[in-house]
Every structure is written in C-alpha cells, then in structure tokens.
Amino acid sequence: MTVGGLLTRRIPALTVVVVSQAVAVVVLGSVVVATGGWSEFGPQLWFAVAAGVVGPVAMLSFYKALTLGPMGVVSPLGSLGVVVPAGVGLALGERPGIPQFAGIAVAVTGVVLAGGPELRGAPVQRRAVVLTLIAALGFGTEMSLIAEASTTVTGLFLALFVQRVANVTVGGTSLYVSVRRGARALPEGGGAALPALTFVGLADVAANGTYSLAAHTGPVTVAAVLASLYPVITALAAFGFLKERLRAVQAAGAGLALVGTVLLATG
C-alpha cells in the first residue's frame, strides 16, 4: 500500500493497479501450475472473482485519496475496512466483548477527527475522506471474500490467481477506456518504476494470502485487525519521505482510528 501510494504521485493510479496485478498473475499462475492448484477448482472460486472485481475499485479509491490528502491521515482511515471481516466473524458466531464495542466507537470518532477542520470549506479534503472510506469498505469486503474462496493452501494459490485475473480484467478495461479518451498510461520515464510496481503486486498477494491463512486458523476478528495495521508503516513513510506534518486534530484522529481497530480484536 505504502509503495503503491508513493508511485501514484508519479504514475496514473490505474496503471499502478493494472501493472502490479499483471505481475502477480504471472507469478501466481506459475505457483498454481507447480503446486497442482487446478485440482481445487470449484464454485467457491466465485468468491475470488467477486474479490477481483471489488479490489480495483478499492485500490483506485485509496490511491486517488492519497493524491488528495495527507498519507498519514488517509492510510489509517483506510484500515477501518476491518469492520467488514470483523462483522463476518460476528455473524459466524464470534461474540464481541466490551473492548470491541469500544473499538467501534473509538474508530468512528477517529474518522471524524482525522477529517479535521479542513472538512470545512475544503472540498478536496472532504473528497479524500469519502474516497478513503469507500476504499476501506472495499478492502474489508475483499478480505472477507478471499477468505471464503479457499480452504487449503493450494486452493488459496488458485483463489489468489483467479482474483488477480479479475483484477487485471476490470482494471485493464478501465485503463483501455481511459487511454482511448486521451489519457496517458505512463509518463515520460515511467518504465523505470517497473521494479517498484512488481514489488507492489507481490506484496499485495502476500498480504491477502497470509490474511486468508490466519483467518482459517484463528478468530477472524483478530486476523482482520492485525491485517489492518499497515498504516503504521505508511505513516512512518509519510513522515520520513514526504515530510508531511499533520495538524494536531488530524494526528489525534488517525491515532484513534488505529486504536479503535486494535480494541476490536481484544474482546
């Protein structure tokens, strides 16, 4: 997420999504062939297809939000997608404790505060928050769907492959339409970013895969919350590389969003 967000400041977000996911398709396809994952083919893969359709929408919303608002605010708010898989866990019989209910309240408060005073009279900042919340919903839905798409390790490889094929199909179609309308797929010298785009695709696969495995071996709420802590790295990147300085109220809101996600798993 962090590297992808940085790349979108130099390369169109659609290109980042399509190229990184295309790399993942090649790698995962090789893994599926090597492990015999095709034997796991079945109707459960429709969950992977659905995740592949939702994924590009979530990623594009997130990357666009990063170009409009401070990374140190956008990324923590994106972690609120944890509410979706946590809700699925509750529906499957996991019972929340008082700390989890407190976590929901704290997280929502964080959303409000992270918008800060910039929400007044600054449409760009309001749009960034809305896009981030759309991305959060998409990420949470994607996590829930991919966890349902497999029950074995080899099945997980196949599910991730199918998901990425759907990602490339949806994102590639959108990129084609965008280019036909006059947009550029790559800026001058954009080809030099291929190694970074490769890393983004592989890191995304690793994140989805490890979450799915964790969700099958322990409480979904705990796995979801731990998977949502990536904004810590993003915030450090924003501070270290982009030299972003957040207003006190925004920093407090971003911090509360993270605290809220942690509390969700402690009940």
Strand content: under 5%
How many whole angstroms does the radius of gyration measure? 18 Å
Largest sheet: none
Broad structural category = mainly alpha
Summed up, the helix count is 12
The unreliable regions are none
Give the helix level as a range of percent. Answer: over 70%
General form: globular
Along the chain, the helix and strand elements come as: HHHHHHHHHHHH
User: How many β-strand runs?
Assistant: 0
Overall average residue pLDDT = 75
Termini separation: 28 Å
Topology:
Layout: H1 2-7, H2 13-35, H3 45-68, H4 71-78, H5 83-91, H6 98-115, H7 123-148, H8 153-180, H9 194-217, H10 220-227, H11 231-240, H12 248-264
Helix pairs in contact: 2-8, 2-9, 3-4, 3-7, 3-8, 4-7, 4-11, 4-12, 5-7, 5-10, 6-12, 7-9, 8-9, 9-10
Structure write-up:
- By secondary structure, this protein is an all-alpha fold.
- The chain has helices at residues 2-7, 13-35, 45-68, 71-78, 83-91, 98-115, 123-148, 153-180, 194-217, 220-227, 231-240, 248-264.
- The longest helix has 28 residues, at 153-180.
- The chain is globular and about 50 Å long.
- 52% of the residues are buried.
- The mean pLDDT is 75.
Concise description?
The chain has 267 residues and is mostly helical.
Which features would summarize this protein structure in a list?
single chain; about 270 residues; mainly alpha; about 75% helix; globular
